[in-house]
Amino acid sequence: MDTIMFEKFGQKCSKELPNEIGKILSIAKGQKACAIGFITTDDFYGFYLVWNYSNNIDEYYDWENGLEPDFLYQPLVDIVETCKDIDFCNPSDEKWEFTQTLLSVLEKSIKQIPDEIFKTNNFKREDILFFSTMSDGDYIQEMIDTSVKMFNALETLQIYGIYNNC
């Protein structure tokens, strides 16, 4: 999929994401670990962030901590609105390709978060498990499986007991 349409979204993420992650980590100070999820809808109308101190990311839908930053909403909606040839309400090769491209944009933004954001809040990058999925829809588990491998170092996957699933 052509990544040019994701440029504006990627730029906003790279610029704004460190601040949002910093907010989450400042709240999580004192915890040994923190899982942070980028959750979208089945039709990709924006992301919201959820986090928890649990190792069980499969129960992300029960987590009470969340943020809805603007930079994760409208820029993504704008992309979806231009993709008239993709039926976002049903599974398809095109929808999965869109998903993979979107995850690669998030991966780049996550990996660009300065180490100082983690250190300031008494974490190492490896203490934080990042993932993405849908709140409901076609690719819930596929997005989790793909994103944890993309977004995190092997050490992080081992800490969270995901290593055996890789």
Explained architecture:
Helix 3 packs parallel to helix 5 (140-151). A four-stranded mixed β-sheet has the order 3-2-1-4. The longest helix is centred in the first third of the chain and has 21 residues, at 7-27. It has one domain. The chain has helices at 7-27, 74-82, 93-111, 115-120, 140-151, 154-159; strands at 34-40, 47-52, 65-67, 128-134. By secondary structure, it is an alpha+beta fold. Helices cover 44% and strands 14% of the residues. It contains six helices and four strands; from the N terminus they run H-E-E-E-H-H-H-E-H-H.
List the helices and strands and how they pair.
Blueprint: H1 7-27, E1 34-40, E2 47-52, E3 65-67, H2 74-82, H3 93-111, H4 115-120, E4 128-134, H5 140-151, H6 154-159
Parallel strand pairs: 1-4
Antiparallel strand pairs: 1-2, 2-3
Helix pairs in contact: 1-3, 3-5
Secondary-structure element series: HEEEHHHEHH
Beta-strand percentage range: 5-15%
User: Strand count, sense and closure of the main sheet?
Assistant: 4 strands, mixed
Radius of gyration, Cα only, in angstroms? 15 Å
Q: Give the number of DSSP strands.
A: 4
| Mean pLDDT across every amino acid position | 92
Described by the principal axes of the CA atoms, the overall outline is: globular
**Category by helix and strand content:** alpha+beta
